[in-house]
C-alpha cells in the first residue's frame, strides 16, 4: 500500500535540502530600477538563494570590497553614472572578486552589446524581459560551474598521481589556477629557479611540451 504521507515527507525533505544547498550561494543583484531589483530578489529568494541588492555600480563595488564572497553577480548594463561595463571592469580589478562570474542584464539584444559584454569579461548575457525558468536555469548553470570544474580538475590530477611527487602535483595545481612561476615560488617559499626545475620535471614525466599543456590537461583532460 502506498503511503502518501511518506512520499510527501520525502518530497519535502528533498525540497528543503535543495533550498539549504542554494542558501550557500550568495548573489549580488545590481540595477538602478528598484522594481527590477525587487523582481530579481523575489525570484532568487524563492529559489533558495541568499541575495544582496545594489542600486548602483559604485555601491556594488563597495559590497564586493567587504569580502562577502558572492557566488554570482547579476549586473544591469544601462545604469546612470557608472554603467555596467565600467562596474564590471572595476570589479575584475579587485583581486578578491576577479573570479566571481558576472551575468549582464539588459533590454538591448543587439549582437554588438553582447560581444562588448564578453570582451569586458561577462560570463553570460540575459536579455530583459526574461522567462523565469530559463533565467533560473542559466543562473544555476553559471553558479555551479566552478564546482563542476573543480571536480574535473581533481579527476585529472588523480591521473597524474602515480607519475608525480606531492610537490609536483601541488605545482601542477597552481599552474591550473593560472599562477606564474614567480607566484608559485612566493606561495611555496621555494626559489624561482627551483620552481622552474619542478615545472620542467613535470613536463618530462608527463611527456607534455609546454607549461600551458599542464593547465589545459587539468582543465579538460586533453593537451
Give a structural overview.
It contains 10 helices and 5 strands; from the N terminus they run H-E-H-E-H-E-H-E-H-E-H-H-H-H-H. It is an alpha/beta fold and 223 residues long. Strands 2-1-3-4-5 form a 5-stranded parallel beta sheet, sandwiched between helices. Strand 1 (26-30), helix 2 and strand 2 form a beta-alpha-beta unit. Helix 3 (57-65) packs parallel to helix 4, helix 6 crosses helix 10 (211-220) and helix 8 (181-188) crosses helix 9 (192-206). It is elongated. The N and C termini lie far apart (56 Å).
Strand content: 5-15%
Gross morphology is elongated
State the major sheet.
Answer: 5 strands, parallel
Q: Termini, distance in Å? A: 56 Å
What is the spatial order of strands in the main beta sheet? Answer: 2-1-3-4-5
Averaged pLDDT, please?
A: 86
**Topology as a string of helices (H) and strands (E):** HEHEHEHEHEHHHHH
Fold blueprint:
Blueprint: H1 4-23, E1 26-30, H2 34-46, E2 50-54, H3 57-65, E3 72-76, H4 84-92, E4 102-106, H5 111-119, E5 124-127, H6 132-159, H7 166-176, H8 181-188, H9 192-206, H10 211-220
Helix pairs in contact: 3-4, 6-10, 7-9, 7-10, 8-9
Compact summary:
With 223 residues, the protein is α/β, with parallel strands linked by helices.
Labels describing this entry:
223 residues; alpha/beta; five-stranded parallel beta sheet; 5 strands; disordered N terminus
Amino acid at each position: 500500500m502506498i503511503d502518501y504521507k511518506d512520499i510527501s515527507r520525502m518530497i519535502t525533505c528533498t525540497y528543503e535540502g535543495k533550498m539549504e544547498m542554494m542558501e550557500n550561494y550568495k548573489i549580488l543583484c545590481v540595477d538602478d530600477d528598484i522594481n527590477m531589483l525587487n523582481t530579481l530578489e523575489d525570484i532568487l529568494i524563492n529559489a533558495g538563494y541568499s541575495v544582496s541588492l545594489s542600486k548602483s555600480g559604485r555601491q556594488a563595488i563597495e559590497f564586493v570590497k567587504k569580502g562577502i564572497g558572492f557566488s554570482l553577480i547579476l549586473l544591469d548594463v544601462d545604469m546612470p553614472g557608472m554603467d555596467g561595463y565600467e562596474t564590471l571592469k572595476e570589479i575584475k580589478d579587485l583581486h578578491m572578486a576577479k573570479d566571481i562570474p558576472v551575468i549582464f542584464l539588459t533590454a538591448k539584444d543587439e549582437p554588438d552589446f553582447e560581444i562588448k559584454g564578453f570582451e569586458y569579461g561577462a560570463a553570460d548575457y540575459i536579455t530583459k524581459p526574461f522567462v523565469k525558468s530559463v533565467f533560473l536555469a542559466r543562473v544555476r548553470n553559471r553558479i555551479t560551474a566552478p564546482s563542476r570544474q573543480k571536480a574535473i580538475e581533481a579527476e585529472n590530477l588523480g591521473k597524474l598521481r602515480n607519475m608525480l611527487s606531492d610537490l609536483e602535483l601541488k605545482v601542477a595545481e597552481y599552474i591550473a589556477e593560472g599562477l606564474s612561476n614567480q607566484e608559485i615560488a612566493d606561495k611555496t617559499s621555494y626559489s624561482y629557479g627551483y620552481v622552474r626545475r619542478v615545472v620542467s620535471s613535470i613536463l618530462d614525466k608527463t611527456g607534455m611540451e609546454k607549461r600551458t599543456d599542464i593547465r589545459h590537461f587539468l582543465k579538460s583532460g586533453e593537451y
